[in-house]
């Protein structure tokens, strides 16, 4: 059976279990199971290379000793065993294991076993055993399948926090071009899309054996929510980071800005901070008074500017609201333009993050250390024949070839224009500058298109009202 069919079989088995409700729970269940199998396969490889290796996992709970036998424990006995395993892993501590115990502990801190049927769980485990993660072909193929699994979270996540389209992460990483020896950080790393893109980019610069070890120590991330953290940890192991201990399960914004020291500064930041959300009361007090807000995306932008080293580079996804907002938003933009050279803003068309949000987004590229003198804008067009993106028509990496060819030979054209800092200041630091080459058109809709548009707007308004209602509670 092909790997893709194996994964489909796993998902179909899970759908039969009454304890699993919805895609998010199924993916979380699959996430920690895959983590354990991948972790065990990687341990076997390490043991082959290092006869002195000691696993942090007690022998009884290593995957090979309870899961690898197709005729192994099942039913209620398996459920009871898993419950014990969770208790052990939530508090696991071991010496001389290279930090692997901390990785396991973070993965299982808030993880759950949702499956109620031990028989169905055994079937899932047996299917997972068909994948050999020490086989390079299997690992490469599964990497593509895993990308598809992560994309399924588009219908399970909120505010863009789980999955950034691969085309966007790849383009941003290609432009920033992180190198060996540079510290790369994603303060809201989700499932690890930017970090894995950075890893693959840095591998291109490897020239000697120690470069690989330097790469492993160069990747840093923080993820607030448990599900994407599990998926990110597993994703990094698949990409060669055997001990992803530098990816923490935490809220980056919960640490006071003044507590960050010189050693916390980074060379590269690639991120898509959650937008459209608000932080819990008190988080804003971790920031200076002039940039205090509870809007998540704005706090992250203030944090990113502070964490960059001199000459450090950043590429950040931000919604339109962060560009034109006033008050604290203006203060944050002033800080950005004063301390960094915001040299480019790529304006993305609507629908890039469909289906979970239609919010218009932008890609901001800036370098720390010199103030902004002018900003280049590039309006990314839809491909010919497209009116929007969708699950069946997602954005493609190749669409950004035109930006890449323009990047180092900039000229104004129908898609690109520049604005001086003087004009930005005169305009009240509004960065929401429309393309001067495009005259505003009156859209003519068919009846069906108009109904769809009204329905979409009503749904978005309902979601916003529900979010406000929950916040007030």
Descriptive notes:
This protein has 17 helices and nine strands. By secondary structure, the protein is of the alpha/beta class. It is globular. The protein starts with a helix and ends with a helix. The model has no long low-confidence stretch (mean pLDDT about 90).
What is the molecular shape? globular
* Fraction of residues in helix: 40-55%
Arithmetic mean of pLDDT: 88
Q: Cα-atom Rg, whole angstroms?
A: 23 Å
* Main sheet makeup: 9 strands, mixed
Strand content: 5-15%
Q: Please report the distance between the alpha carbons of the first and last residues.
A: 50 Å
Stretches with pLDDT under 50, minimum 5 residues: none
Q: Total strand count, please? A: 9
Short key terms for the protein model shown above:
single chain, 473 residues, alpha/beta, 9-stranded mixed sheet, 17 helices
Quickly describe the structure.
The protein has 473 residues and is α/β, with parallel strands linked by helices. It has helices spanning 3-14, 23-49, 63-66, 75-90, 100-108, 118-128, 136-151, 166-176, 193-203, 209-216, 226-238, 296-307, 320-324, 328-339, 401-407, 421-426, 447-472, and strands at residues 184-186, 219-223, 247-249, 266-271, 308-319, 340-347, 361-368, 374-379, 416-420. The chain has a 9-stranded mixed sheet.
Show the helix and strand layout.
Elements (H helix, E strand, L loop, with lengths): L2 H12 L8 H27 L13 H4 L8 H16 L9 H9 L9 H11 L7 H16 L14 H11 L7 E3 L6 H11 L5 H8 L2 E5 L2 H13 L8 E3 L16 E6 L24 H12 E12 H5 L3 H12 E8 L13 E8 L5 E6 L21 H7 L8 E5 H6 L20 H26 L1
Parallel strand pairs: 1-2, 1-4, 2-3, 4-5, 6-8
Antiparallel strand pairs: 5-7, 6-7, 8-9
Helix pairs in contact: 1-6, 2-11, 4-6, 5-11, 8-9, 12-14
């Amino acid at each position: 059976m092909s790997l893709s069919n194996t994964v489909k079989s796993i998902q179909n088995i899970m759908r039969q279990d009454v304890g699993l409700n919805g895609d998010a729970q199924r993916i979380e269940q699959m996430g920690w199971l895959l983590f354990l199998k991948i972790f065990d396969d990687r341990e076997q490889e390490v043991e082959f290379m290092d006869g002195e290796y000691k696993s942090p996992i007690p022998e009884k709970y290593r995957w090979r000793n309870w899961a690898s036998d197709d005729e192994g424990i099942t039913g209620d006995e398996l459920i009871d065993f898993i419950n014990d395993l969770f208790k052990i892993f939530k508090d696991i501590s071991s010496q001389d294991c290279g930090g692997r115990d901390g990785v396991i502990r973070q993965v299982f801190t808030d993880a759950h076993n949702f499956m109620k049927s031990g028989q169905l769980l055994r079937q899932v485990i047996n299917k997972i055993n068909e994948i050999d993660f020490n086989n390079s072909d299997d690992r490469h193929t599964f990497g593509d399948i895993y990308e598809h699994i992560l994309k399924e979270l588009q219908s399970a996540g909120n505010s863009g926090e789980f999955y950034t389209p691969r085309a966007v992460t790849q383009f941003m990483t290609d432009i920033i071009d992180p190198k060996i020896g540079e510290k790369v950080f994603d303060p809201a790393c989700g499932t690890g899309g930017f970090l894995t893109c950075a890893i693959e980019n840095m591998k291109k610069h490897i020239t000697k054996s120690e470069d690989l070890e330097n790469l492993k120590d160069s990747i840093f991330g923080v993820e607030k929510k448990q599900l994407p953290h599990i998926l990110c940890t597993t994703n990094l192991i698949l990409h060669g980071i055997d001990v992803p201990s530098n990816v923490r399960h935490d809220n980056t914004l919960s640490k006071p800005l003044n507590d960050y020291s010189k050693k916390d500064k980074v060379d590269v930041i690639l991120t898509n901070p959650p937008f459209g959300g608000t932080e819990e009361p008190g988080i804003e007090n971790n920031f200076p008074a002039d940039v205090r807000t509870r809007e998540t995306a704005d706090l992250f932008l203030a944090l990113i500017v502070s964490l960059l080293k001199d000459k450090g580079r950043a590429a950040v996804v931000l919604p339109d609201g962060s560009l034109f907002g006033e008050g604290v938003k203006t203060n944050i933009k002033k800080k950005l333009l004063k301390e960094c050279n915001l040299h480019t803003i790529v304006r993305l068309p609507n629908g890039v993050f469909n289906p979970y949000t239609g919010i218009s987004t932008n890609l901001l590229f800036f370098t720390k250390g010199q103030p902004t003198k002018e900003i280049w804008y590039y309006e990314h067009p839809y491909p010919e024949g497209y009116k929007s993106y969708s699950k069946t028509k997602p954005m493609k990496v190749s669409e950004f070839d035109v930006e890449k060819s323009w990047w180092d030979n900039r000229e104004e054209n129908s898609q690109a224009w520049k604005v001086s800092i003087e004009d930005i200041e005169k305009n009240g630091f509004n960065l929401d500058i429309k393309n001067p080459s495009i005259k505003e058109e009156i859209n003519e809709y068919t009846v069906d298109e108009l109904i769809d548009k009204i329905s979409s707007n009503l749904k978005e308004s309902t979601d916003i009202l529900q979010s406000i209602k929950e916040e007030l509670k």
